[in-house]
Amino acid sequence: MTPIVEARSISRVFPMPAGPVTALRDVSLSIAAGDYLGVVGPSGCGKSTLLHVLGCVDVPTSGTLLFHDRDVGSLADTERSRLRLREIGFVFQRFFLLPMLTAAENVELPQAEAGAPRAERRRRTMALLEYVGLAARADHRPSELSGGEMQRVAIARALANRPRLLLADEPTGELDQGTGEQIATLLDRLHADGTAVVVVTHDPAIAGRARRLLRMRDGRIVDEAPR
Amino acid sequence: MVFQPTMTAAFLISVALLTQASPTAVEPAGILITRQLAESRGLTVGSVVKLATDPAGAHARLFRVDGIYEPTPDPMHFAQPQLDARMHLPDLLALEAGMPDERDRRGVTSINVALSDRDAERFALDVAARVPGLVARATSAPDDRTNTFIVVERFHLAIAIVTVVGSAVFLLALMVMLVDERRSTVGILRLIGFTRRRILLQVFIEGAVIALAGAAAGILFALASQRLFNGFFQWRYDTTLVFLRITPSVVWRSLAMAVPFGIAASLVASWTFLRQQLLALIRR
């Protein structure tokens, strides 16, 4: 199957005043449609950096990252922005919702930027909020939602432009166990509905749901196990 | 070209002595007096008064008040009450004729001449050529007596420039703080796929709207202040002099400075964040 994203010997080095820090070392990885990948490892092992590079938020210092066979390193910032807008969905531990917008407006925003007609994006927004079980809270602002609800809105927003790849960085990190379970179940549903999912997590319960599990240490993939 | 000083010229004299007099058999000459003078002495049209150039009242002559006028405000003397009377040149000469000492006579410093053919420049040149030492100029020509106000205007312009530059620096600092508060918003927008150009465009529109709204508020405030200031000082000095005037030129100049400054401040402040890596914005 043609991979959505493929990393070939990528490294990421951050220049720091005290000296360069290597967050990723020679990582190779391929993610295809329908994959459900869990990434685990100790803090500082490079999990989030890998997710950022895969999501075109950051670029590798060396190696090649291909997104649908296009070399991301050669893309301009504007083109990487377009990739993030149309092909990739992000879910972060801290939700990153815009506080001045309602849940529905947060979900509608990426669609508007992608040029979706108003009627269509309103319909899809309500469908997505239904999907995550928050249709009744569409007009609520993030400050009026619980942590679990905010994360579900973030997931709905991540799915707004029908991305092929969903990247989740510690999506249950700020949630209690029960709410975390709800989010994990929602990610399972996304995967079952055909979206490729990559989850970076410390939570064994979340990692245990993934079909492939990557273990990282010191910026390297030390183990990859299908499940 | 017609030169008719006795018919067209009006002269101002300071009133040395002014009293209401009983009507006499001799028809007194007509004069015009300022509103301030009429109010201060309780005079009306038709009142007959005695005028003299001598402070003691010697050689006084009778005049009849033919009209009361609102004097043209003089910025050089706005703090002094305008107690003036206007009369025809022969009456002035007759009034001064009785003065024993030639040196005590008040001089005529200027005469306004109405021209039938309106070629004031040519007339002025002609007069200057015929009467050396006499200054003749068109009323539309720059008046040397306003040099003081030109200096004051330049001083005000300098103050305005300093104020605008200071305000621009303040505005820039304010916008930097405002944008700093929106750092995470910019990060989220970049994360979900907004391009830098798109965000800058948004900032540009916001900056323009804020700058226009700010300029409009400032202009409205200035217009309101104008009425307040003028009302107070006109009351205080009993004059119709306009102390503060917001002209269309002032409005356009304000807009021309405020809007570009506002937009530039927004863009400069935003660019400080947009030029950063996306990770730096969302990791804060």
Write the topology of this structure.
The complex is a heterodimer of chains A (227) and B (284).
Chain A: E1 3-14, E2 21-32, E3 36-40, H1 47-54, E4 62-67, E5 70-71, H2 77-86, E6 88-92, H3 103-113, H4 118-131, H5 147-158, E7 165-169, H6 177-192, E8 196-200, H7 204-207, E9 212-217, E10 220-226
Parallel strand pairs in A: 3-8, 3-9, 6-7, 7-8
Antiparallel strand pairs in A: 1-2, 1-4, 4-5, 9-10
Helix pairs in contact in A: 3-4, 3-5, 4-5, 5-6
Chain B: H1 5-8, E1 11-14, E2 17-20, E3 29-34, H2 35-41, E4 48-52, E5 61-69, E6 84-87, H3 89-97, H4 120-130, H5 147-181, H6 183-191, H7 196-237, H8 248-274, H9 278-282
Parallel strand pairs in B: 3-5
Antiparallel strand pairs in B: 1-6, 2-4, 3-6, 4-5
Give a verbal description of the structure.
The complex is a heterodimer of chains A (227) and B (284). With 227 residues, chain A is an alpha/beta fold. Chain A contains 7 helices and 10 strands. In chain A, strands 6-7-8-3-9-10 form a 6-stranded mixed beta sheet, sandwiched between helices. In chain A, strands 2-1-4-5 form a 4-stranded antiparallel beta sheet, with helices on one face. In chain A, strand 4 (62-67) and strand 5 (70-71) form a beta hairpin. In chain A, helix 3 (103-113) packs parallel to helix 5, helix 4 packs across helix 5 and helix 5 runs parallel beside helix 6 (177-192). The relative contact order of chain A is 0.19. The model of chain A has no long low-confidence stretch (mean pLDDT 93). In chain B, helix 5 (147-181) runs parallel beside helix 8 (248-274) and helix 7 (196-237) runs antiparallel to helix 8 (248-274). Chain B has helices at 5-8, 35-41, 89-97, 120-130, 147-181, 183-191, 196-237, 248-274, 278-282, and strands at 11-14, 17-20, 29-34, 48-52, 61-69, 84-87. Chain B has a 6-stranded mixed beta sheet with strand order 1-6-3-5-4-2. Chain B is built from 9 helices and 6 strands. Chain B is α+β, with helices and mostly antiparallel strands. The longest helix of chain B has 42 residues, at 196-237. Chain B folds into 2 domains: 3-130, no CATH class; 146-282, no CATH class.
